[in-house]
Specification:
Distance between the termini: 41 Å
Shape: globular
Largest sheet: 12 strands, mixed
CATH architecture of the largest domain: Alpha-Beta Complex
Number of domains: 2
Strand content: 25-35%
CATH class of the largest domain: Alpha Beta
CATH topology of the largest domain: Fumarylacetoacetate hydrolase, domain 2
Order of helices and strands: EEEHHEEEHEEEEEEEHHEEEHEEE
Length: 290
C-alpha cells in the first residue's frame, strides 16, 4: 500500500494511492482519519482499508486532493548522522562507533510541495536526502533480527539543515528543527512492498543539478540496527519517524557552497518509494506569532 494523509474539502484523512487515484477512507467511518491512530489499529484497520480498495469505489483523483505529510503528528522524529562512509569522508570526521542520533522537533514536519523557508537568521540552508522509516507498532527492546516486524513502511525525507545553527547545540537539534525543515512523503510505502530497504537508490536534485546519488546498501548502521539501538533506550510508538542518514553531496561541502536559496526547488527520489519535491522561499514576514 501507498498510505497517504490527504486533504479534500478542508478535511484531512487517511487514504491509499492506487494508480492516479486516492481511495478515500471516508467510505468507512471505522477507519481512523489520523495516520498515527490508523497505524495503531494494526492489521484490523489494514484489512478494512484493503476491503475498501477491493470494492473499487470511494476513489478521488489525485488532482483533486492535497497530499499532506504522511504522518503529520509523530510523537518522535529521530535522525542519525554520519551513517554513510562517503558522507563521513567529505566531512573529514571520524567513523562513529555507535549510531549518533539527534532530534528533529516534530513542529518542523511538512508534506510534499510545501515551501521550505530559508530563515531570516541564516543563508546556510542545506538539504539531505534520506530514507525514512515509519514505526508501525509500540515496541521496546526489539532484537535486530525482529526489527522488520515493527516497521509500518518507508518514505522519502529531506533532513533540511541550517548549518551554522546546527553547531549552536551539541545535539544539532536547533539547526535541524526550524519550521518547514522536515519535508516527508509523498506517501508511506508499506514494508511488505519493499523487498530490501538496504538496496534503494537515493538521488537529490536542486533545480536540474543532481547533487546526491547513493544507495542505502552503504549504510554503516542499517534500519534494523537503528531500531534495535533506539528501542534499547526508549519505547517507539506507531508513527515515530527515523531518518536513516544521508550520503555525500551536501551543499556545505561543495566549492563554492551549494546552499539552497529562494527560488530553488529541491527534489529527492528513492527507487521503489517515490519523489518528494519542495520549493524554497524566503521566510515570510508573517511567521511571527506572540
Amino acid at each position: 500500500m501507498k498510505l497517504v494523509t490527504f486533504t479534500k474539502d478542508n478535511q484531512s484523512r487517511v487514504g491509499v494511492v492506487v494508480d492516479d487515484m486516492v481511495v478515500d477512507s471516508a467510505g468507512d467511518e471505522s477507519i481512523p482519519s489520523n495516520m498515527v491512530e490508523f497505524l495503531r489499529g494494526g492489521i484490523s484497520v489494514i484489512d478494512k482499508m484493503s476491503a475498501l480498495i477491493d470494492r473499487g469505489d470511494a476513489r478521488v483523483s489525485m488532482q483533486n486532493v492535497k497530499l499532506e505529510a504522511p504522518v503529520p503528528n509523530p510523537s518522535k522524529y529521530l535522525a542519525v548522522s554520519l551513517n554513510y562512509g562517503d558522507h563521513i569522508n567529505e566531512t573529514g570526521m571520524a567513523k562513529p562507533e555507535f549510531p549518533t542520533f539527534f532530534n528533529k522537533q516534530t513542529s518542523c514536519v511538512v508534506g510534499p510541495g510545501v515551501a521550505i523557508h530559508r530563515p531570516n537568521v541564516s543563508e546556510k540552508l542545506d538539504y539531505e536526502g534520506e530514507l525514512a522509516v515509519v514505526i508501525g507498532k509500540r515496541c521496546r527492546h526489539v532484537p535486530q533480527d525482529q526489527a522488520g516486524k515493527v516497521i509500518a513502511g518507508y518514505m522519502v525525507a529531506n533532513d533540511v539543515s541550517v548549518r551554522d545553527w546546527q553547531f549552536r547545540s551539541p545535539t544539532f537539534t536547533l539547526g535541524k528543527s526550524f519550521d518547514t525543515h522536515g519535508p516527508t512523503g509523498p506517501w508511506i510505502v508499506s514494508a511488505d512492498e519493499i523487498q530490501d530497504p538496504h538496496d534503494l537508490k537515493v538521488q537529490t536534485w536542486v533545480n536540474d543539478d543532481r547533487r546526491q546519488c547513493f544507495n542505502t546498501a552503504d549504510m554503516i548502521f542499517n534500519c534494523y540496527e537503528l531500531i534495535a539501538y533506539l528501542s534499547t533506550v526508549m519505547t517507539l510508538e506507531p508513527g515515530d519517524l527515523i531518518a536513516t542518514g544521508t550520503g555525500a553531496g551536501v551543499g556545505v561541502k561543495m566549492k563554492p557552497r551549494g546552499y539552497m536559496k529562494p527560488g530553488d526547488r529541491v527534489r529527492i527520489e528513492i527507487g521503489g518509494i517515490g519523489e518528494l519535491s519542495n520549493p524554497v522561499i524566503a521566510e515570510p514576514e508573517n511567521t511571527a506569532n506572540y
